[in-house]
Amino acid sequence: MKKNFLIYLLLSFFLLTMGGCGTTNKEAQQNADGQKLNVVVSFDAIRAITEAVGGDHVNVQNIIPSGSEPHNFEPTAQNLATLQNAKLFIYNGFSLEQSWLDKSLSTVSDKIDKKELTVVEASKGATPLQLDEKADNGTSLPDPHIWLSIEGGELEAENIKNALIQVDPANKDDYEKNYQNLKNDMDQLKQEYAAKFANSKRKDFVTGHAAFGYLARDFGLQQNSVSDALLSGEPSAKKLKELTDYCKENHVTTIFVEDMVSPKVSETLANEVNAKAVKIYTLEDIPDGMDYIAVLKYDLDKIYESLN
């Protein structure tokens, strides 16, 4: 969906007058005292990684509110107001934010030009998986879900660590330490589940939303899905028939239902093939009481269970 660019020009004026509405008085005072670094991120997964690396030195806010589906999101003036107080803005990349990123950054172009706001693409340097879906110009689109991969998550964490050090060099040692702790935890997960998946009875799993391609690549697995990676429309009858036949022929016992996607089609498929529907998380909305590592481990556990 496209907005009239005039709206974004008007937002520029609005945000200049509304600059503080995205931050509480307490947070504003902390930043004024140098106690917290104001960081704005595009959505929850990037927030979780940034908080893990930034620790006590950062105050992190989302543009896309928790609980909102990021694929088709269009920010409001209130969402964008948080950028006015930020020193660092981190987005995922791989086209996830393409519908609004450039237009939104144009509202704070003066801060960027004055180097008062640093903008970082968390996925920079990664090799994207290419989707069957095409952009308007006919080129292939990258799969944006790199944060669900352990290897991809480590790369994003390193990019975020480097950005935090660039903006806040006084706390470099803490950022390095926090990053290394996170990387160690992720390396342990990778080693544990590489061994488990190597001995799995099967190597394929079925999801409602094709969000787990990078995770599958990490461990040599195959993902089959009802909906495409960009949630770009309802699955066709032909697609559903092929997937139903696949599940029956391969005795699939679990259909994963993502937390941010309507479960209706996946649950219908599960009933059709006599499988159980199991919730899995895309980290587009972090469950209460869980952090980035806990969600990754939960997902890996459920996928492993489905293969045995």
TrEMBL record:
<keyword id="KW-0175">Coiled coil</keyword>
<dbReference type="InterPro" id="IPR006127">
    <property type="entry name" value="ZnuA-like"/>
</dbReference>
<dbReference type="GO" id="GO:0007155">
    <property type="term" value="P:cell adhesion"/>
</dbReference>
<dbReference type="InterPro" id="IPR006129">
    <property type="entry name" value="AdhesinB"/>
</dbReference>
<dbReference type="GO" id="GO:0046872">
    <property type="term" value="F:metal ion binding"/>
</dbReference>
<dbReference type="InterPro" id="IPR050492">
    <property type="entry name" value="Bact_metal-bind_prot9"/>
</dbReference>
<dbReference type="Pfam" id="PF01297">
    <property type="entry name" value="ZnuA"/>
</dbReference>
<keyword id="KW-0732">Signal</keyword>
<keyword id="KW-0813">Transport</keyword>
<feature type="coiled-coil region">
    <location>
        <begin position="172"/>
        <end position="199"/>
    </location>
</feature>
<dbReference type="GO" id="GO:0030001">
    <property type="term" value="P:metal ion transport"/>
</dbReference>
<dbReference type="InterPro" id="IPR006128">
    <property type="entry name" value="Lipoprotein_PsaA-like"/>
</dbReference>
<protein>
    <submittedName>
        <fullName>Zinc transport system substrate-binding protein</fullName>
    </submittedName>
</protein>
<comment type="similarity">
    <text>Belongs to the bacterial solute-binding protein 9 family.</text>
</comment>
<feature type="signal peptide">
    <location>
        <begin position="1"/>
        <end position="23"/>
    </location>
</feature>
